Amino acid sequence: MTAPIEDVTQHTTPLPLLAFVHVPKTAGSTVNAVLDHCSPRGLSHCEGIFHTDAFLGHAADGDWVSGHIGRDGFAGRLIWLNRPVEYFASTREPIAQLLSTQLAFRDIAPRNRVLPGSSSRGSTQYCRGPSN
Prior knowledge:
Largest sheet: 4 strands, parallel
Helix content: 40-55%
Radius of gyration: 20 Å
Oligomer: single chain
Structural class: alpha/beta
Number of helices: 6
């Protein structure tokens, strides 16, 4: 007599959730595309639902999440999951990142136009940090 399948299966720990900390202008869109290609069970640009139960549902059932959220922000929300989490980010050579940011500002908003929800500071001042 053979044992039922339930008796011989091994209970394994779920695979870790991958949490990609998307630093602006550091190839994040490429990383998101690769993650999606490897597993469609993920969620990119999760900022919009980050503070909702829907985000936790995606994180509990999915393979990866990605967003413009710091590692500590992710950790604070994901600590309640009953699974390990692996965090990662990509970086870029600083001058290339600065130039890419400048080009993004140029492409997003015409000159002398303030983006909705932003201050009147330009991209140079934005890169320097908050004004005092």
